[in-house]
Amino acid sequence: ALLLLHPSVLIADVDCTVEQDLCGEFGVSGYPTIKYFTSETDKKGESYNGGRDKAELKKFTEETLNKGCQISAVTECSEKEQAYVEKQKSKDKAALEKELGRLQGMAGGGMAAEKKQWLGQRIGLLKQLVK
Q1: Same-domain status, 89 and 41
Q2: Among 51, 60, 93, 97, which is 20 to 30 Å from 131 by CA?
Q3: Which conformational region is residue 10 in: left (phi greater than 0), alpha (psi within -120 to 50 degrees), or beta?
Q4: 65-117: per-residue pLDDT in tens?
Q5: How many domains are there within the chain?
Q6: InterPro entries annotated for this entry (predicted)?
């Protein structure tokens, strides 16, 4: 089953009793398990531990998985994001790629949720700037 909660996010249902290899590949051993994948998670994704009803999933999707700030509409971004974009715009592509690599290296580490969210936002912004 597929559930669309946001235009840029797709949620899929996998039956691990049937798709054992796939579930094993992504470290799913208990059921039910919800995993999500973003540019900040590793290839196996990250386990979702929030509420399981549609309202809670929608809230998580909008707050965490939403594409966020877009460089093409930077005036709609938060002041913090706008300041970060302005600071990074003066750097050349090599410097942006270096910073992106540094931040991506930090993504797998443990940190407070607020810091992890800001890390993800910066990674998303840098990816746009590098293009």
Answers
A1: no
A2: 60
A3: beta
A4: 766 788 888 888 889 999 999 999 999 999 999 999 999 888 877 877 778 88
A5: 2
A6: PDI, Thioredoxin-like_sf, Thioredoxin_domain
Q: Are 52 and 35 in contact (CB under 8 A)?
A: no
Quote the tokens at residue 6: 């946001």
Name 46's bridge partners: 36
The CA distance from 18 to 16, in Å, is 5
Residue 107, both tokens: 């993504």
The label of the residue with tokens 């910066």 reads 122
Give the chain as a DSSP string: -EEEEETTEEEE---TTT-HHHHHHTT--SSS--EE--TTS-TT-EE--S--SHHHHHHHIIIIIS----GGGGGGS-HHHHHHHHHHHTS-HHHHHHHHHHHHHHTTS---HHHHHHHHHHHHHHHHHH-
pTM over 0.85? The answer is: no
Measured N-to-C along each axis, helices 113-130 and 79-89 cross at an angle, to the nearest 10 degrees, of 40
Which sign does the torsion angle of CA 17, 56, 50, 119 carry?
Answer: positive
